[in-house]
Amino acid sequence: MSTGGKGGVGARIAYYRSVMRPKMTQQQLAQTSCVALGTIRKIERGERGVSDATLESIADALGVDPIRLRTDRAPTHTRVHDSLPAISASLAAYDLPEDGPLRPVHELRSAVNEVGRWRLGAQYTRIARKIPEMLVDLSRAYHLSVEEERSELAQLLVRAYRSADAVAYKFGAHDLSARLIELMRWAAPEADDPLLTASVAYVRTETFFASRRYTSGLQALEQALDSVPSPVSRTEVAARGALHMRAAVIAGRVRNKEAAVSHLREARALADQVHEHVYYGTAFGPDSVRIHEVSVAVSLGDEHVGRALDVADEWKPPRDLPAERRSGFYIELARAQLWSGLAEDSFESLKVARHIAPQHTREHPWVREDAATLRRLKRADSETLTNFAEWCAAT
After folding, report:
1. Positive or negative, the Cα torsion across 129, 167, 34, 153?
2. Which of 190, 223, 250 is a domain's end point?
3. What is the DSSP letter of 279?
4. What is the pTM of this model?
């Protein structure tokens, strides 16, 4: 279905772009939505129509529900939700690949790198559009590979499954997420890389978060820490540090203050040995640990929440951190501010999170919960807050 440009869609896009804080230029909208600048200009002038896929990409970049840009205002599922069955279907024959073209390893490597960047940038629509076919191609290449290519293809499979899992987990398809994580655990040993296995243990924690089995999740991470090589290289330091970082948060969820503080301390000591970077698909370094310090404070709750506010007073995440991680900081901060009675500050943090990574923010359950609470409190501009709550489907 295509939405025409003369019925006000372009004017709505221009309006929402102009009221962004800070205001978003056409160039910035083009870059954030991955739509050509010339196309943005023509749509806003009403000189061309806009497809549903393009409209959703623009809406995500603006942080508004696509319905607000449409002329018919008909309710629609997002393209990401609609793609979940295709992702699931691509896994059905993971060990029995169908006949088809065999893509060279260098092409597959490039494609996996690309979707990995999209994952870190919280560009889930783009991942969802590309990942089903990629998983089929990778499975075929892996099972038909020659011996010298098998290890790398196993690694590429793990990384692709992780990108697919980001879509499934963030959009609430937890059974599909668990399936993808099990496939990561199946493929990782074939890569014969203990640091890749450590990265899978990091991701596996999602299943424990989803099921609220925090104690089991902490045990799984501590077992993974026992199997990680003693840190010598930067990547080994980062792999161990990321596991401690994750363990600190899940220990906080189970209100195990001693374990949370201990793991956070270990993570901070390891982060001081490396520079902030993405190691094996996970951002780690001093800035990431500081963000997780806020997460731990919010997880522990009660008298610890003030520590999250103290961190935010002293520091803000730099722009070169992955968008998903930066938006997560403001989502966590918003909860700490709400619990501290700072309703207006909380709403401002949610808006910053939306500006950084609209898709990640819209699908985050805490955002929906906190937006609904703020709406009930009526402690912010009612129209703006109502629009935000409708955008993230807060009830």
Report:
1. negative
2. 190
3. E
4. 0.84
